[in-house]
Amino acid sequence: MDFKPNQSGLDRLFTTIAAEVESVDELLRGEYAGRAPEEIVAPAARAFEAIGIESLSEEWIVDYARAVSADEPFSINLG
After folding, report:
1. pTM: predicted TM-score of the whole model, two decimal places
2. What is the mean pLDDT of the chain?
């Protein structure tokens, strides 16, 4: 099968994924900001897996947990 997505379709897909990631981030920050990063790693990994993002490195999850813990921004690059 040969897929040939157009730009509009790719833009919609990206927008949907970005919204899901932002939603997970908002929920995690709401529940875990200020807690120890060690408490955040497992729930963060499960939350991202729940939306289909399963190939995150341990280093990425730990860095993300530290940012959530400190309520600091974290750049998530999709692409």
Report:
1. 0.84
2. 92
Q: Is the dihedral of CA 11, 20, 34, 61 positive or negative?
A: negative
Cβ neighbours of 51 (radius 10 Å): 13
Query: Does residue 2 sit within a domain?
Result: no
Radius of gyration, CA atoms only, the chain: 14
Q: What residues make up the domain containing 53?
A: 7-70
Position 65 scores a pLDDT of: 98
In a domain, 77, yes or no: no
Non-local CB neighbours of 76 within 8 Å, separated by 6+ positions: 21, 25
**DSSP state for residue 33 in the 8-state scheme:** T
Alpha-carbon separation of residue 73 from 62, 66, 78 (angstroms)? 14, 10, 16
Token couple for 51: 């939306």
Residue 57 lies in a domain: yes
